């Protein structure tokens, strides 16, 4: 069953991609790009979700998606006009589809009538415009997604030479409800990994079908191009009361990727039929190859040339009962590809061996390479376990460190003596850098995947709070490490919820304040050096500082005699324990779970900064590392121990004597740097590694994290800059205050990474306490 | 007891793997012998220094690099309240797994691999809270008393109260 689980996992992966795509399409449609390409893309996405859902038996999802799809189809046909109302209904429908997918994934049951209202509106819209057409109102229970009907005899394992598919009833008795379909796939159809066989299967469910392959286009083997499409099909389908629309529906999914001609069977002009036969006769010369082609979607039989022609012209070689064999036929069928074709062509010299002998040999199981090259034409991609990539990233990280260690150990005398070695090391440095960048790029993903979930959130919040809110997203193609992206979703949700809930005012209040009725939340991502900045900005009321400060005093977070600056007050909303359920209702500003935001962001080595303008809005900035794996750091010594400070937070380093620190009344010490007083943290003291205090000169590392005030870290020595691979302390131990993690130095020793932001906050609290 | 260990020495694996016997790695701290179940031991290595961890209790000696992974080292002597070990090159770190974590324990020396009978494991006598807290039981082996270390207890509460 694990196979099935794998398929399911793949399906849900695809669903989330498709849902993301849907959001994008509708964002464009909402913005006025109402062209057929967008609609087709939407339609395909919903159809794909429905198809997979059917295969796994998620009937609620299938039902809803089907109704939605029907509406989309009518919109595409122009039978239903794409009004704003329809667009917003569709957007709502996307959300419902997402919920259904989510429910299917987690196994949670949604209300039985969840989405029923929307479904009814689809049906209403569809019916309203479609008149007597019964298709739109088709009861959903009738929607047969299980594809059981396989009444196709797809070839002749016994070797009866035949290149056509035969169904129980010999056709050519054109009756009412008999249709002739000419189906000519384009290259794109295969490129999108569609399989004509599946279409035939669906057609076969509609009525009695026979399929004939046309191979007049097949070139001599020397000109044969594996990716070209040489094959088209004639299908005759009969079933009383079968309508053209039903047939069209089967081909909907490949619309635009193939040519379809559907004619009433009786209507086929005799001349056409003759031409058709000539076509088929023309194939005779290469019947061995062309019959193979005819079978690429079925199975490989290897008819003798004569037999091939005969069968081409002979419409009904004994219809075979297929009960036993149809199942496995179908299982084999999709796995056959041009690769097999190539494999089978080889053993088919002019002598044309007897089919009986060859047929089994020809049924080579598809090799996956062939499949791959057959299917993917555009950008090729593979799904890889993140674990495997992580391992590579880690090893490259180690390589980078070893390389920089080697470089460091080349002292001047060695450099002078071994110039070749130095040059070699330089090349190695370049290569490892390149390797590192490429490996990192593998993990990089556009933030789009997170951003695209937010419009929905904002819509929901707007409905819930009866506000008018517009979401703007900027820079959604900015790429960040996958693990960072994964950690981003929760904090972003919190931040946007805060903006919508507490920041943006009600329409009346906004109008009264002279602002536009609709509030705007702007979500943007940009790269800034080795960091990514994610900014959530709103034009709401801003943080109510008085209330925040009062609450913080009540909770003992700020000492009564301490008056924090405006900026410090804003920052207070991240203080742990500050936001409780009670606080939420009390504070018109922020407060809901913002400590969660902070802790999540700190976990991935980032920082949060908030800035508020009373009455004008609020801006929260997340500063995130590009990657979690490698960090540029400065190596320092505190006591006898090596520590590293992330380079991204270092402003400058300097040497000064202890005498230049000045005491402030609270007992803390400050350092004057060019007229600015900076809080001093003596790492040795702070970490309990106190050395006998001398008057010797100390080194100071001046740090600054996003928007916060600077802080001066006192260390005993500065060793140098290097790159390190971040290792977790928590993996085998637990979180240590003031330490962001560990790393392994070139000499094999462990150095701890200083958590500058963490030091500051704890320090602040200690001062306040 | 004698008989059992003799049989083991002869390589009677069936007895060793028998449900009722237990193989221990025994190590010493001063005059005392302690043991842990052999299956939890991952590696034994010589003391080679550790990077101290700030804001932790005195029995947390710091962290070492175990082939790319950071592993904390606990000073067992200090954990028993006997003051920190002054480690030399002859001191030994026993790396063990506790749950899904790997931890190292600094001891004076590893002495032996013992096979004991589960039935011979006694409860720790009430009285000294450190003993009852950190030991799972006591077993006698060749007239030596061996304390069975409760690893989970040893490594818990490592953070200093701030």
From TrEMBL, chain A:
Protein name, UniProt field: Chemotaxis protein CheA
Superkingdom of this protein's organism: Bacteria
Domain Histidine kinase per the UniProt entry, residue ranges: 377-628
Function: Involved in the transmission of sensory signals from the chemoreceptors to the flagellar motors. CheA is autophosphorylated; it can transfer its phosphate group to either CheB or CheY.
Pfam families assigned: CheW, H-kinase_dim, HATPase_c, Hpt
Catalytic activity: ATP + protein L-histidine = ADP + protein N-phospho-L-histidine
Keyword Transferase: yes
Protein keywords: ATP-binding, Chemotaxis, Kinase, Nucleotide-binding, Phosphoprotein, Transferase, Two-component regulatory system
UniProt EC number: 2.7.13.3
PROSITE patterns on file: CHEW (PS50851), HIS_KIN (PS50109), HPT (PS50894)
Modified positions (Phosphohistidine) in chain numbering: 47
Span of domain HPt: 1-104
Annotated CheW-like domain residues: 630-765
SMART domains named in the record: CheW (SM00260), H-kinase_dim (SM01231), HATPase_c (SM00387), HPT (SM00073)
Keyword Nucleotide-binding part of the UniProt annotation: yes
Class of the enzyme per the UniProt entry, highest EC level: transferase
TrEMBL record, chain B:
Name assigned to this protein: Purine-binding chemotaxis protein CheW
Highest taxon of the lineage: Bacteria
GO cellular component: cytosol
Domain CheW-like: 21-160
PROSITE patterns, alphabetized: CHEW (PS50851)
GO biological process terms, semicolon-separated: chemotaxis; signal transduction
Cited SUPFAM superfamilies: CheW-like
InterPro entries hit by this protein: CheW, CheW-like_dom_sf, CheW-lke_dom
